[in-house]
Amino acid sequence: MSTETHISDGTPVLELRGLCKSFGGLQATRNVTLRIMPGDRKAVIGPNGAGKTTLFNLITGIYPVTSGQVLLFGQDVTSWPSHKRTSLGMARTFQITHLFPKLSILDNVLLAIQGLRKSKFVMWRFQSSYRDVYEKAYGLLDQAGFLDRKDTEVRNLSHGEQRQLEIVLGLASDPKILLLDEPAAGLSSGESVEMAKFLMKLDPALAILLIEHDMDVVFDVASEISVLHFGEILETGTPQQIHSSAKVQEIYLGTG
């Protein structure tokens, strides 16, 4: 099924139907239902222990579901392993960076691209042997504003820049939906502003679902926000609706 078909036929990029997960007697997610269309920018927020990371682990296939369904482009992928979901068009970043600090920015991107391919990548071979890989890497770095620093070692980047680079690596698989697990975690307020700007520059056709504690980033990036509380969606609305919701302020923001 082509990308154009996904976009034109009204099929959600990602759909969750009554998703539940129990760990023994603890119900971590309860009947979570969500639809994400191409180009959507959605966020899931909630206090620690609300079940946000568990939800991401169910979506990406790290945890098996207890009940409910996960659909990608209308296909039931509930029982699929993570790598198979990636091949269909899903990518995810994690709270902790997974970069090679002593390698250059370019080498990190090359490895991410080649890691998705069946052929073996040998670093000391001529660049011409991997022209398509290099062209793709240069394209990703150009879009993200890293091309002029492609030879810089990753350890010399700021923490915020490393978080941005990790998102670039997530784009190496040409995903149609990108799941961002707290992209602003550990960033200063200035770095968070830069992260929000970076996310808003991404391809508008790319669907994004993020979980995040930094409300400034959430309100800047997301057009729709779902509030997770004790594993279930308490409320969904625009940033303005969520910001002014007395119920959300009482439960999530600790007011009232």
Distance between the termini: 49 Å
Percent of residues in helices: 25-40%
Largest sheet: 6 strands, mixed
* Sequence of secondary-structure elements: HEEEHEEHEHHHEHEHEEHH
The CATH homologous superfamily of the domain at 3-97 and 175-251: P-loop containing nucleotide triphosphate hydrolases
Task: Indicate the mean pLDDT.
Answer: 89
Structural account:
By secondary structure, the protein is of the alpha/beta class. It has a domain at 3-97 and 175-251: 3-Layer(aba) Sandwich (Rossmann fold). It contains 10 helices and 10 strands. The chain has helices spanning 3-8, 52-59, 82-88, 105-114, 131-144, 159-170, 189-200, 215-221, 239-244, 246-251; strands at 14-23, 26-36, 41-45, 67-72, 75-76, 90-93, 177-181, 207-211, 224-229, 232-237. Strands 6-7-8-3-9-10 form a 6-stranded mixed sheet, with helices on both faces. The protein has a 4-stranded antiparallel sheet with strand order 2-1-4-5, with helices on one face. Strand 7, helix 7 (189-200) and strand 8 form a beta-alpha-beta unit. Helix 4 crosses helix 5, helix 4 (105-114) runs parallel beside helix 6 (159-170) and helix 6 packs parallel to helix 7. The model is unreliable at 1-7 (pLDDT under 50).
Write the layout of secondary structure elements.
Layout: H1 3-8, E1 14-23, E2 26-36, E3 41-45, H2 52-59, E4 67-72, E5 75-76, H3 82-88, E6 90-93, H4 105-114, H5 131-144, H6 159-170, E7 177-181, H7 189-200, E8 207-211, H8 215-221, E9 224-229, E10 232-237, H9 239-244, H10 246-251
Parallel strand pairs: 3-8, 3-9, 6-7, 7-8
Antiparallel strand pairs: 1-2, 1-4, 4-5, 9-10
Helix pairs in contact: 4-5, 4-6, 6-7, 7-8
